[in-house]
Amino acid sequence: MTPGARAAAAIAVLERVLAGQAAEVALVQWGRASRFAGSGDRAMVRDIVFAALRCRASFAALGAGLTGRGLVLGWARATGQEALFDGAGHAPAPPGPTEAGAAPEGAAALDCPDWLEPLLRASLGADFAPVMQALQRRAPVFLRVNLARVTREAAQAELAAEGVETVAHGLAASALEVVSGARKVQATAAYREGRVELQDAASQAVVEMLPLADGMAVLDLCAGGGGKTLAMAGRARLRLVAHDAEPRRMADLPARAGRAGVAVQRTDRPERAGPYDLVLADVPCSGSGSWRRDPEGKWALTAERLAALREVQAGIMDRAAGMLGPGGVLGYATCSLLEAENGAQVAAFLERHPGWRLEAARRFTPLEGGDGFFGAILRRGEGR
Ligand SMILES: C[S@@+](CC[C@H](N)C(=O)[O-])C[C@H]1O[C@@H](n2cnc3c(N)ncnc32)[C@H](O)[C@@H]1O
Question: Which domain of life is it from (predicted)?
Answer without folding.
Answer: Bacteria
